[in-house]
Structure formats: structure tokens, C-alpha cells
Design a protein that fits this description.
heterodimer, A: mainly alpha, 4 helices, B: 463 residues, alpha/beta, Histidine-containing Protein, Chain: A, hypothetical protein tt1634, 4 domains, six-stranded mixed sheet, 13 helices, 19 strands, 38% helix
Chain lengths: 98, 463
């Protein structure tokens, strides 16, 4: 993992920043989120992909691309979480007490 | 926490650029990553001995195909690649090199090249043997060996020693089958066969010589009698210093007129009975007016012109009988055309000239003519044939040593022996009278050994 991180750290950083930006926006964004059903379906898909990656079931380049995608996705999620949490903190501090 | 869950429902739009990023990252990083992993895997196998190694990388998966020389080496190679950082998994396509049973290695030499074939145990051995084959010198090297397991211990040492022997061959083949060595071919030089046999004693422990069919090149001795230059040229080989000296001395005695040119070299490898065959053969050559003697191993070829018919017959029939067992004689003797007749005075002059250059020799104290005098006698007979009407007195003389009566008798017997020799050669007996004078007609003083030697003589007197 350390080797891979050194090899394409730029892309990982980009994923984190993208996630951060998305998380920042999502706190104040209006509109409907993903439905609960779809959320479960997506979680199941991601879990299946993680399972396939850990089992090394996908060979060759596809396996590499899967690993790369999952790592970028994981960092995107981390970025989102941090961004959302930070925005929420900023918003709650600047809002007048109810 | 609940907020995080609620917000996460709105994170999906970022997935679209993320997918684009992912596609670009995959597009740009795959090939450099593969190249880097291939290079690191190759570096990891630097110290592992493998043959036909192929490394291919797809994503982070390395396919390693190679022939290993032991099970440990094979597993170690796979483990080394697995330990390379970034490698996800190794597709193991390694195998052990085939085992050769029996383990055969051979080196064949012909005029143009040395060809190595069979099996070598390791690439390093293969390289070393190829290097050694190049050092054999002056020839091209073709390496057709395969790598195989199952070589006997100390294979390299044995094979290097054998390659050294290939250098001593003109052509031939050396084969190592497990620990058994077989050699065939022809040695480059005289003594090469013996040198190879001696070197094979240094084979590593456990190795043995199964067949050694290396033949020696023919052992050649040549003598050429040149009537124009008045020389006898000896060329070729003699076994040792003693035989060398003996042959040159014998040539000096037999060729009383010719100068002996000694171009002989000493070398081992002479056939047995060499001197016993060459000495009489030189005697036969001395009887020819011109001729060549070629001794090749145990075959004696004598060609040239005899001075008269009976001499040719004697040489053809007689020489082979004098040879040791197993020797062959191939005479190609013709007869020189008879010289023009001369009158009695010239005949006497010719006799005096001949006997002035050399004397007819006898066994000490006896009346047996020694074989060395055959050449001189042939010339005396040839001269006698040129004056067919002249009667000749063959007179025997001695020095003053010993009893007078005994000397008288010895001189008579010796004169008679010479007369008999001439008759045997086909001359009419009535032309010759054998007379013994004992010590009564000295031509030099009897007080010195030299003078005595001059007085012990046979004279031909034309009457």
C-alpha cells in the first residue's frame, strides 16, 4: 500500500480534495438525497467490490483498476466526511443561537 | 453522527468527477506501474540462477516463467518476486529444468570447429566450458549444449580437463557419460596420445576412462639418397637420443660416399622394433643409386634404382625378412640402366677409387662380410660388370698382429668370401681368383692403429 501511495499520491490527494469539496457543499445543499433503498444497494455493491479486491478475484489490469478505484473512493468518502463535518461546525458556530 | 448519515445522501454528485479522475489515473499510471514492477522483480531475481526467465506484468500481477535448477531455487525465485513491494500476486509458471539421465556432454573437434553438445548443469558452467573451448585455439566454437539437471559432482573440472585434451586432438570426440569418459580420434602430434593418457590420470575422483581410442599420427622416418648432391638426408622422427646416434652412425658406415644430413627430431610414440627395422632398411637404401626410404609406423616403403638386376632381387626378397614381427615391406625397386663398358685400365682405376673411399669390412677375426659393406660391394660388382672380359684377382691382406699363419689363412678366407659374394651376384666364377697375402704386402706402417687399419684390406687387381 505504501508503494502504491507513493506511486500515485496526486490522484489520491485529488480524490480527498474532491470529497472535501463535495462534503462542504452537501451540508447546505437543498434537495433530496439518495433513497434508502438505493443507498443499501450501493453499499452492497461497494462491499462486493471490496470483497472481490481482497479476495484478489479480479486478475491483471482489471484487478489493479479495481484496487485503484476503491482506494480513491474510500479517500473520497473520507474527504466528504471531513468536509461535511467541518462545514457543519462552521455553520453552527456562525448561526445565532436559537 | 446522524448528520453525517443525512449529508452522505448528497455526496453522490462528486462520484461523477471521481470516476473521471479514476479513469485518467488508470489510463496514465498502469503502464509506468507495470514497467516499474517488472524492473523491481528483475532486480529481485538478480542473484537467483534461472534459465529462460521471462517476467510479464499485468496491473500488479507478475507472471514469472523460468527454468530453475533446483526446487529450492524455484521456490526462492517465486518468494523473491512475491516480496517485491507493490506486487499483488505472482503467477508461478516456473519449472525445473529437465533431468538428463544419463548426463551426457561431448566435445567434437574437426578441422574447422569445436562443437560442444549434450548437457551442461548450469549457465555458468556452460559459459566456462565455452570459454575453455575458445581457448583450444585457432578454431570456431559451436555450442549446442542444453541445460539439464543430474550432472555428476565435479562435472566442471572433468569437462575442463577433457576440453584441454581436445586441444591435443587433430580431430576426434570426447564424450562424458555420467562419470565415464570416452575418447576417439587422432592426436595432433606424435606423443599426443601418450600426453592425453597421462592427463586423464588427473580426472576428478570418481571419474573413469571407459574407452580411449585416440590414435597417434603415423610415426614417419624418411631417408633420401641424392646422387647429384651426394647426400643422404634423414628426416622425421626417432624415439630417443641413443637411437638417433645409432642411426646416424649406421648411415655413416653404410653410405661411404654420401654426406649424411641429419634433420631428425626426437619424439615418443615409435613403433616397437623401430631401430631394428630402420637400420637394415638404410642398408638397402645404400645399395640403390638413387632412392627414397619412407618408414610410416610399421610400414617400410623403399623406392629407387638398384645398380644391377641381382641386387634388385636381393633387396626385394631379402629386406622384409630382416624386419621384426609385424613390420611390412613395400619395395618399388627398379634397375638402373647398365653403364657403358670400359676397358681393363679404367676398370682398375674405378676399383682403386672405390676401395680408396671405403674398405670391405668383416666381422672381427673372421671372414664374414658385415652388412654395412653391401653398398660398396654393389658398386664393385657394377664396376666388374662394366669390364666383362677382364679377369680380376681379389687379394686379401692383414696387419701384422697375431700369428703369421693365421693371418695368411684369414686373408685367404676373406678374399674367398668376397669372391663368393660376387659370384652369388651373378658374375662368372672363372673371372675371379681369390688370393691371400697375409701381412706380406703392407701399404702403411704396422706400428700405429691407423696404419694397421689401412693394411687390413681387400684389393681388386685387374689382370
Amino acid at each position: 500500500m505504501a508503494y502504491l501511495t507513493t506511486f500515485y499520491w496526486g490522484w489520491l490527494l485529488a480524490s480527498v480534495l474532491l470529497g472535501f469539496a463535495m462534503g462542504w457543499i452537501s451540508v447546505v445543499q437543498h434537495g433530496e438525497g439518495v433513497s434508502r433503498k438505493l443507498r443499501w444497494a450501493l453499499s452492497a455493491l461497494v462491499a462486493a467490490l471490496i470483497g472481490a479486491a481482497l479476495a484478489r478475484a479480479v486478475p491483471g489490469r482489471f484487478g489493479y483498476w479495481l484496487d485503484l478505484g476503491l482506494i480513491m473512493f474510500a479517500l473520497y468518502l473520507c474527504g466528504c466526511a471531513v468536509g461535511s463535518w467541518l462545514r457543519d461546525w462552521v455553520v453552527s458556530r456562525s448561526a445565532p443561537p436559537a | 453522527m446522524h448528520g453525517l448519515f443525512r449529508w452522505s445522501g448528497k455526496w453522490w454528485p462528486g462520484i461523477i468527477p471521481l470516476v473521471i479522475f479514476w479513469a485518467i489515473a488508470a489510463w496514465t499510471s498502469t503502464e509506468p506501474l507495470e514497467a516499474d514492477l517488472a524492473q523491481r522483480s528483475t532486480a529481485a531475481l538478480k542473484d537467483t540462477i534461472l534459465d529462460k526467465r521471462r517476467i510479464s506484468v499485468a496491473g500488479r500481477d507478475v507472471t514469472l516463467a523460468a527454468d530453475a535448477f533446483s526446487e529450492d531455487g524455484r521456490q526462492g525465485a517465486v518468494a523473491s518476486v512475491e516480496a517485491v513491494p507493490g506486487v499483488r500476486l505472482v503467477n508461478d509458471e516456473t519449472r525445473l529444468v529437465p533431468e538428463a539421465k544419463p548426463f551426457v556432454w561431448s566435445a567434437e573437434r574437426d578441422v574447422l570447429r569445436v562443437t560442444l553438445s549434450g548437457s551442461s548443469p548450469l549457465p555458468a558452467s556452460k559459459g566456462r566450458l565455452l570459454e575453455a573451448a575458445r581457448a583450444v585455439g585457432g578454431v570456431e566454437v559451436a555450442d549446442r549444449t542444453n541445460l539439464a539437471r543430474g550432472a555428476p559432482p565435479r562435472f566442471d573440472n572433468a569437462a575442463l580437463l577433457l576440453l584441454d585434451q581436445v586441444g591435443k586432438l587433430k580431430d576426434g570426440k570426447v564424450t562424458l557419460t555420467d562419470t565415464r569418459v570416452s575418447l576417439t580420434g587422432m592426436a595432433r602430434e606424435l606423443g599426443g596420445r601418450e600426453a592425453i593418457a597421462a592427463a586423464l590420470k588427473n580426472l576428478p575422483e570418481g571419474y573413469s576412462v571407459a574407452v580411449n581410442d585416440v590414435k597417434a599420427p603415423p610415426y614417419i622416418f624418411q631417408a633420401y639418397k641424392d646422387p647429384v648432391a651426394v647426400t643422404v638426408t634423414l628426416t622425421g622422427y626417432v624415439p630417443d637420443n641413443n637411437v638417433h646416434a645409432a642411426l646416424v652412425a649406421a648411415a655413416g658406415r653404410k653410405f661411404f660416399r654420401e654426406k649424411v644430413v641429419d634433420n631428425l627430431k626426437e619424439s615418443i610414440g615409435a613403433p616397437s622394433g623401430f631401430a631394428n627395422a630402420v637400420v637394415p632398411a638404410l642398408g638397402a637404401l645404400s645399395r640403390l643409386s638413387t632412392g627414397t626410404l619412407v618408414v610410416s609406423d610399421r610400414e617400410v616403403k623403399l623406392s629407387g634404382d638398384a645398380l644391377y638386376e641381382a641386387a634388385a632381387g636381393q633387396i626385394r626378397a631379402g629386406l622384409g625378412k630382416e624386419f621384426p614381427q609385424g613390420w611390412q615391406f613395400k619395395p618399388e625397386i627398379s634397375v638402373r640402366p647398365a653403364a657403358a663398358p670400359v676397358d681393363a685400365t679404367v676398370c682398375q682405376q674405378l676399383f682403386t677409387d672405390l676401395l680408396g673411399k671405403a674398405r670391405i669390412r668383416f666381422e672381427s677375426g673372421q671372414a664374414d662380410i658385415v652388412a654395412d659393406s653391401a653398398g660398396l660391394l654393389d658398386r664393385l660388382i657394377e664396376t666388374a660388370l662394366r669390364c666383362p672380359t677382364a679377369n680380376i684377382e681379389i687379394s686379401g691382406h692383414t696387419d701384422t698382429d697375431g700369428d703369421e699363419a693365421a693371418n695368411q689363412e684369414l686373408s685367404e678366407k676373406r678374399a674367398q668370401a668376397v669372391a663368393d659374394y660376387l659370384v652369388k651376384a651373378g658374375l662368372p666364377a672363372n673371372r675371379f681368383s681369390a688370393v691371400g697375402y697375409g701381412a706380406t704386402q703392407p701399404i702403411a706402417g704396422n706400428d700405429t692403429d691407423q696404419g694397421k687399419a689401412q693394411n687390413r684390406r681387400i684389393d681388386f687387381v685387374v689382370k
